[in-house]
Amino acid sequence: MDDAPMDFTTDELREFLEADGRGVAADPGFKERLRRRLWEIVRFRGDQRVGGDEEQ
Amino acid sequence: MALTWGGTTSGETALPRKRSLAPPPLLRSDEDLVQGIRRSSEADFNALYERYFQRVYSFAFARLRNRADTEEVVQETFIAVLRSIHSYRGQSTLLCWVYGIAKNNVNNHLRRAKSHELRVELAEPGMVLGTASLDASTPEDQLSLRRYQESVQKLLSNVADWQSEVFWLRHAENLTIGEIAQRVRRSNDAVRSSLYRIKRMLVEAVDPTPAAAS
Predict the structure, then answer these.
(1) Which residues of B12-42 are buried (b: 16+ CB within 10 A; e: fewer)?
(2) What is the pLDDT of residues B122-159, one digit of tens each?
(3) CA distance A5 to chain B (A)
(4) Does the reported pTM lie above 0.95?
(5) Structural domains for chain B
(6) ipTM rounded to 2 decimals
């Protein structure tokens, strides 16, 4: 995915940045389930890269 | 189970480790966390997740106003971020990058929802008849309508209870997609899909040629 600068205003970005301590609270169960799933993705991709490096 | 900085669990009998000079993950820069995640550091991953979760969640909820849709977008956003983190070149800050992905996902979600709703609305005329049309029709029409209603009820007995409820809430009580989603505790997309599926089944039941179902 390209990480080149995208089309949005600084106000939008500030709103996003300041959303840390406010807004609606997420379901803690969802947050934890997603954390575990994402960590599996990170670990799997890490393993794949290590495997790929070893094969080379 | 508590996590240590090194990404291992505290319950392990670990060999003595050299003291790391790196700052705790929560104080590290985004770029350092990205590097750590590329090396599969769980501590860095957790720190990045904690740093961005509430931002992405609040941002999405402010636009979608629905928990199920928000959770879907939050999940899509983090998966996109982590799947492409190895190709992140740092051309924009991580903050801008994550925000860009979140915004894109919210917009795509809104577009999909709008187009799905439109398809459901377009599929409505002639397929679902209200009681008003029963009063206005001829005896032959009433008979054929009654048969049609029987086939609708028979068809609805073959779908899950909540899907049948969705159908009646929409067409008998005339509730909006959002109201139905809250009532049956499903996402807006799930409600739309369910309505769309039942309508396709109705079309096929009335005219089972392949052209009618397409």
Answers:
(1) eeeeeeeeeeeeebeebebebbbebbbebbb
(2) 555 445 544 445 555 566 666 666 776 777 777 777 77
(3) 5
(4) no
(5) 25-114 (1.10.1740.10), 123-213 (1.10.10.10)
(6) 0.76
